[in-house]
């Protein structure tokens, strides 16, 4: 019931214009969160922009944060009806201005990630800032070597075990500790195995609300 209420509330706000992805992304506050979007093919971009990026942004704004969206290229994110036009280029971001990084799933699978993106996430953690990643974006943290010795969540079971769809273990997760598909926090690293697309297509519970709230709590008071 809670998930249905959240879904309907967000859809109403999107349709009525109360949630404007452009205005939400650039609010006026001195507490800023960097939302990094991986670029690649998405099975349902409109849905994820509204129901993942939109929900994350709404919750962060409600908690008093400005949300700046960045990609490696700086190009706008555009689906058939949902768009995020004010997108910054990652290399132009000044990380010291941000209190944390959140990385939505966006229903983007395993894609090549630029070294600059790994460097930004590593610096944030080195500076003691929380980093949250949803569903398929958890692979980015593993590829950067940030999950070694850490507990983490993943959407497709333990990546080090073979399944009907996974013919061999995924070596980027070696030495990491798989801990289910919920929301898992280990230090400043927060991961989840559920997003709107995972729930829609795979029946895995959407954890967007819980992930974002855990990320906000990890940032702490001003």
Would you kindly provide a written description of the structure presented here, covering whatever features stand out?
The structure is a single chain. This protein is globular. The strands form 3 sheets. It has a 7-stranded mixed β-sheet with strand order 5-2-1-6-7-11-10. The protein has a two-stranded antiparallel ribbon with strand order 3-4. The chain starts with a helix and ends with a helix. Helix content is 34%, strand content 18%. The chain has 222 residues and is α/β, with parallel strands linked by helices. The protein has helices at residues 2-16, 21-25, 45-62, 115-126, 138-143, 196-202, 208-219; strands spanning 32-36, 66-71, 77-78, 83-84, 88-89, 98-103, 131-134, 151-152, 177-178, 183-186, 189-192. It has one domain (21-219): 3-Layer(aba) Sandwich (Rossmann fold), CATH 3.40.50.880.
Give the helices and strands, then pairings.
Elements lengths: L1 H15 L4 H5 L6 E5 L8 H18 L3 E6 L5 E2 L4 E2 L3 E2 L8 E6 L11 H12 L4 E4 L3 H6 L7 E2 L24 E2 L4 E4 L2 E4 L3 H7 L5 H12 L3
Parallel strand pairs: 1-2, 1-6, 2-5, 6-7, 7-11, 8-9
Antiparallel strand pairs: 3-4, 10-11
Helix pairs in contact: 1-3, 3-7
* Total number of strands: 11
Q: Any idea of the CATH class?
A: Alpha Beta
Helix residue percentage: 25-40%
- Named CATH architecture: 3-Layer(aba) Sandwich
Radius of gyration: 16 Å
- Helix count equals 7
Biggest sheet overview: 7 strands, mixed
- Average pLDDT level: 88
Principal-axis shape: globular
Oligomer: single chain
- The termini sit apart by 33 Å
Q: How many structural domains does the protein architecture include?
A: 1
Low-confidence region ranges: 5-9, 11-28
N-to-C order of helices and strands? HHEHEEEEEHEHEEEEHH
């Amino acid at each position: 019931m809670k998930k249905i209420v959240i879904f309907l509330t967000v859809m109403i706000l999107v349709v009525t214009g109360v949630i404007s992805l452009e205005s939400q992304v650039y609010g006026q506050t001195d507490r800023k969160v960097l939302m990094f979007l991986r670029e690649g093919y998405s099975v349902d971009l409109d849905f994820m922009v509204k129901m993942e990026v939109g929900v994350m942004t709404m919750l962060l704004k409600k908690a008093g944060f400005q949300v700046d969206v960045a990609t490696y290229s700086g190009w706008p994110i555009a689906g058939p009806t949902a768009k995020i036009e004010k997108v910054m280029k990652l290399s132009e971001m000044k990380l010291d201005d941000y209190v944390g990084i959140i990385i939505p799933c966006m229903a983007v699978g395993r894609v090549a990630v630029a070294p600059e993106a790994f460097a930004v996430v590593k610096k944030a953690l080195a500076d003691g800032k929380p980093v949250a990643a949803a569903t398929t974006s958890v692979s980015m943290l593993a590829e950067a070597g940030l999950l070694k010795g850490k507990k983490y969540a993943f959407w497709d079971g333990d990546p080090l075990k073979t399944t009907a769809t996974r013919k061999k273990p995924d070596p980027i997760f070696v030495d990491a500790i798989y801990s289910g598909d919920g929301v898992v926090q280990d230090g400043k690293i927060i991961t989840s195995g559920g997003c709107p697309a995972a729930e829609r297509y795979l029946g895995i519970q959407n954890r967007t609300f819980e992930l974002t709230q855990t990320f906000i709590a990890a940032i702490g008071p001003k």
